[in-house]
Amino acid sequence: GQVIVRLEDDEYRAQLQQARGQLMNLQAKLAELENGSRPEEIAAGKANVEQAQADLVNAKVNLDRTAQLQREGVLPKSNLDDAQARYDSAVARVNSLQKTFELVRIGPRKEVIDAVKGQIEQVQGVVAFMQTQLNNTVIKAPVTGTILERVVERGEFVTTSFVGERGAKGFVVSLADLNDLRVELDISQNDFNKLGAKQKGVITVDAYPDKKWDGVIDEISPEANRQKATVQVKVKVLNPDEYLRPEMNASVAFLSDDKKATTASAGKPVVFVPPSTVRSDKVFIVVGEKVVERSIKTSGNTPQGLRVEEGLIGGEELVVNPPADLKDGAKVQRKIQEK
Q1: For the stretch 273-299, what's the b/e string if a residue is b when 16 or more beta carbons lie within 10 angstroms of its beta carbon?
Q2: For the whole model, what pTM was predicted?
Q3: CA-based, 20 to 30 A from 80: which of 3, 50, 106, 169?
Q4: Whole-number pLDDT of residue 27
Q5: In angstroms, rounded to a whole number, what is the distance separating the alpha carbons of residues 336 and 139?
């Protein structure tokens, strides 16, 4: 949580202020729509309708008088036409003002309010994004640890995209928790089956060969390295101290678990076979004049040969370099050598 670096934030502050202004404008507009028309607006609309209705009554009286005088021959036909036009205009104005008054009285449509609510939600997302951008200008320590390296100076540029040789830096500091150290090992695939999760070991480093630290397997890679024929294993240091440093050369001597120790102490025979007798985890045993195919389980190659954990008990006769077409139950012929 401690602040490590502060980035320039003037642009982000301006963008955040602009987005907040848009949000306040839309919120005010929504409040106006939800509150509907003010009493004064309704009263003004009603007064306009009443005035138009009074004008309509006057236009009707004038039209009737003009029609009577025209029938009596006092006024010409053009006066009647003018009075009729004024009456029709008054009727249309009353209808228009009545509809306007009704809209003012009812208030805005629900669809208009929903549209403004959608705009507000959109601008709220912009405000949240701008606030996140502004917060990201303050880089804080994600863990409790020690800064190993500082790669930027005041005034330099940093970026999360392409980093050139002399361009902007992709990170600002290198931080490590010296109380949470792990040893990375590349274990040969032939020896990998000897290890298990949470297996314990003893850690030594080249810098202090006389010191030892306790460790336990904390992580095993789910994928092997085909080029190296290895599997990466990480061993957690259980008792780190001030002598250990990141990037030191370290070695781990793994300890056998209790199950393997008990099996060895019980006197179980250890069986080794030549690698040339094994084909796809199977061997051919000579029994009388036939061969019997048997599946075995090995635990790795040793100077004595392949170590067999299951499938053989020792003393069996095996076929060396079995042909590809050799099948279970095939007959064999022994060749007797003369001395």
Answers
A1: beeebbeeeebbbeeeeebebeebebe
A2: 0.46
A3: 50
A4: 92
A5: 83
